[in-house]
Amino acid sequence: SPSNLQMGESSMLERANCRAKGGAPGFKVAILGAAGGIGQPLAMLMKMNPLVSVLHLYDVVNSPGVTADISHMDTGAVVRGFLGQKELEAALTGMDLVVIPAGVPRKPGMTRDDLFNINAGIVRTLCEGIAKCCPNALVNLISNPVNSTVPIAAEVFKKAGIYDPKKLLGVTMLDVVRANTFVAEVLGLDPREVDVPVVGGHAGVTILPLLSQVKPPCSFTPEETEFLTKRIQDGGTEVVQAKAGAGSATLSMAYAAVKFADLCLRGLRGDAGIVACAYVDSKVTELPFFASKVRLGRGGAEEVYQLGPLNEYERVGLEKAKQELATSIQKGVSFIKK
Ligand code: NAI
Questions:
Q1: What are phi and psi of 310, to 5 degrees?
Q2: I need a labelling partner for 225 at 20 to 30 A (CA). Which of 29, 109, 196, 265 fits?
Q3: Where does NAD(+) bind (predicted)?
Q4: pTM for the whole structure
Q5: Probe ligand 1: pick from 144, 146, 148, 174, max atoms within 8 Å of CB?
């Protein structure tokens, strides 16, 4: 009968809550924008991560359906759904890690900067919630334009008096994932054996792969360098064009986001030697934000590594990247300060 069903459901929920509260080992993770093209596969992959004990799925539409669906997976994490602004605070309270893929994606002919007007406001609202409800959480920001949304988040956190630069990470892992794949293709290697540092930012010429630092050590002809650099920089546009109006990268992005979030959680757990590229508050260049390798630990990005030796091609690329980054950072900062 319906009443039995209700009783069954509520006692099940109680038990799940108990399991979550009773300190099931693991971290509490929220995904904001969980019903989107990235959000859904990201939620699925996070539910499979044994380091996650509680998974909160927040969106302004469709989160109940995604939550019901994901919650049937027989993995450890307890899943809860949250719908709309009035449930944002409940979604965020107590979280260790907040992953943000909320916002509109590109269509053919658009740059990431064309998304600024809509996504800047979304990121501001979500970060105000984080400042209020889980000011110590690590934040993985995916919403574009990342080069500007990370400075926006930083300004919101500064205004709220809770800014910890180590805890705000712009996700550039998809650029690294693409670089590993494309470089492996040229070298005839398994992509899992390849490590390409990608520095700078996450848009066009600000995406700067350091092909002189690829592991395992190798060398490229000038033509290969040009081809690979362009392909890595335009990887997102390759997907936008192939999807022909249906959005941008979602599946490879969800994969990259989970790869990055997993490294963040291992760092939080206290594992040693966790290193990844991310777009962070930085003193590596004269710019206030820059992507480079960082060491992830209990406090977030505990160490930001220098770029290492660059060749002439990379030095020229770095100057171009810095010029565009400076404008994008300024745009983000003034969005909050104006
Ligand atoms: P989508 O449109 O499929 O999903 C976005 C989701 O955000 C939707 O479910 C929407 O309801 C939700 N949303 C909108 N406003 C919200 C709010 N105020 N609070 C919570 N949720 C809200 O878009 P998709 O493809 O998932 O892309 C999301 C973002 O990720 C875009 O900005 C895109 O440019 C960016 N992106 C970033 C990449 C990176 O490497 N950092 C790579 C690919 C995409």
A1: -110, 150
A2: 109
A3: 33-39, 59, 119, 142-144, 253
A4: 0.94
A5: 144
User: Contact 264/296 with Cβ under 8 angstroms?
Assistant: yes
Q: What is the pLDDT along the chain (338 residues), one digit of tens a residue?
A: 344 445 556 666 565 555 555 554 799 999 999 999 999 999 999 999 999 999 999 999 999 999 999 999 999 999 999 999 999 999 999 999 999 999 998 888 888 888 999 999 999 999 999 999 999 999 999 999 999 999 999 999 999 999 999 999 999 999 999 999 999 999 999 999 999 999 999 999 999 999 999 999 999 999 999 999 999 999 999 999 999 999 999 999 999 999 999 999 999 999 999 999 999 999 999 999 999 999 999 999 999 999 999 999 999 999 999 999 999 999 999 999 98
Token digits of residue 261: 């979030």
Which residues does residue 57 pair with via DSSP β-bridges, in sequence order?
Answer: 31, 81
As a whole number of angstroms, the distance between CA 66 and CA 62 comes to 7
Question: Which residue of the set 202, 231, 293, 322 is catalytic?
Answer: 202
| Ligand 1 lining (C-beta closer than 6 Å) | 32-33, 35-39, 59-61, 101-106, 115, 119, 122, 125-126, 142-144, 146, 171, 174, 202, 247-250, 253
Closest atom of ligand 1 to CA, residue 171: 41
- Among protein residues, the one with the nearest Cα to ligand 1's atom 35 is 143
